[in-house]
Every structure is written in structure tokens, then in C-alpha cells.
């Protein structure tokens, strides 16, 4: 499944002398069972620091009740109290007859999201932030007011082959040993009309490809999102929320279908979409679909039904975010145009999606129509 070569290692060492650490991109199984295996995801690179010791010449301080920290008060912004499930789990979700674990997974094609019963986004934001940081990621976007949490680009160390070269030499230069891939994850947290919270994880990826006749150069190219990797992180989030690995995997396997009809309509020379479901659910689905295109959501206003998006160039994002910032030009990337994606009720069970201008009028530009086409493809 994985490949490596002596020539590749030799090339990498020569490239390291110039300041770039990289290896041949790895191929691997992308089935759900493979990605749910515990050893397929390993982004944590930090090591545990040695335990602190008290010098022998210092006496132990007097510890009495007056120095004890006050208990956490949930009403002042603390996390939600965990509930006990029939299976004995202390879970963040609120168990019900329909959801004995207090949560379930829904899917639309290869898109999956977690539904946590009886909890608001505010109550789950802290544990989600802890989850990504404990998983070895740095958060680039931490915006509870918009429900968007984005990691910086990171390397999955589990993708590095444990061959003889790494065992003998790699341990000495492991800091520079690269899998040739980078991943970024975007978490969208949305309040549902029934009081639950929907959590989705979207994967973006880049791959280093060797160039030149002698394979001495390289460039970064976009890779397709990996739905199985997204599901693997949903499993890990459910474990953070109190389920066992087996329970979380079963919920992914038993994901509830949530597909609906999406039709293209021509209005005044512009294309719009009609989604056969109420606004609350359509709003979530459009947000998920935007996450899976090359358009990034900068902000959103649920009351106005507006997603503010711009075209995202993954390579420019990597440069700007500083992954290889010191090795690239310091010139600022060109600003990109912002688009307004409007989600609005059209009938009792039909929601219209359109790209509009600042005045709320339909945007007839070719770029706007491209967004509509991409959304139609994602929603179907």
C-alpha cells in the first residue's frame, strides 16, 4: 500500500540541505475501515515534558481549604454537565429514546455530520477546541460567533513509512522527515431548530509532487477531500464527548440518510437552486456544501440568510499561513472578490439559494453562476 525508495531518501537529504524537508507522496487505502483504524491518524508531534520535582531545600507549602479553587459554575460559561447513558457512558449529549447515546450521525451521500442532542454550540465549543488542540493541531480560526473553527495545515505522521531507512537514519532527523502531504480541517458548528447541535468536519489536502527529470524539485498540488478521514475525526470527536470507539464507529456505520431534492431554476437570466426542505435544514446543507468547494466561508449571518465567501487557493493559503513562509516570497497574496450566497425561504418546505450582490439583487456574473453550479453538484 505504501511505497519508498533509496533514491527518494537520497534526494530528500539533498533537498534538506537547502531547507526543504519532503518525501515522495504516499498512496494508501481510503476505505472507511482503514481510516477508522487507530494508527491511521497521528498529527501530534509534541513530546511530553519531564515531571517537575520540588528541590529538597524547599518545604511543602501549607495547603488548606482557603486556597482551594472554587467549583466550576456552568452558568458562567463552563462546559455542559455530562449525562449518563443506559450503556453507562458519561456523555455530553442528552440521551433520548431515539438516541440512547445522546447523539447520532446523519449523512447525505459521502457527507456526514454529528448531531448532539440537547446541547447548544456554546456548550460544545470548548470541548471541540480542546479536541483539536489535543490532536496536535494549531487553530487558525476560532470564531464561536460564526460557528467556524479551522486548523492550520498539518502533517499526518502516521503516513510516514516505518522502513529500514527511517529506523536507522530517520530517528536522527525525524523533525525533517516528511510524509509529503498536508491536511487542514474545518469544523462547522450549527444550532438546529430542535435544540440540538450539528457538527461537521471538512477535510482539505495538499500533496508534494517531485518535479524535474532527476526529481530534485517539488511543487505542492491540491488533493481531493477524503470523506473517510472526515468520518475518522467524527469518531474521535464522539470519543471526546464520552462514547467508546466501538460505539462511535457504530453510529457512523448507522448514519441516517438526509437526502432531499435540489432543482436548478432560471430566474431573470440567472440560475438559482430550490431545495425541498425548510430553511433551517437547508441553511446547514448549504454551509456543508460550501465547505466542500474551493470557496471559503469568511462569515455568515443566519438572520439575513447570507454566507460571505471567497475563492480559496490552497497553495496561497499554505504560503500565507506560514507553513513554508520563510521559503517563499514575502509578497502579499492578491485579494479575492467576496460573494454573497443567499439562503431564503420560498415556500413552506422549499428554500431558494442564490448568489446576490450587496443590494440583494441576483448576481448575473459568470463567477456567481459557477458557484451555483458547484453548489448544485455538491447538494446532489
Automatic annotation (TrEMBL):
InterPro entries: BamC_C, NlpB/DapX. The keyword Repeat does not apply. Keywords: Lipoprotein, Signal. Residues 1-27 form the signal peptide. Pfam families: Lipoprotein_18 (PF06804). Transmembrane segments: none annotated. The keyword Lipoprotein applies. It comes from the Bacteria. This is Lipoprotein. It comes from Caballeronia glathei.
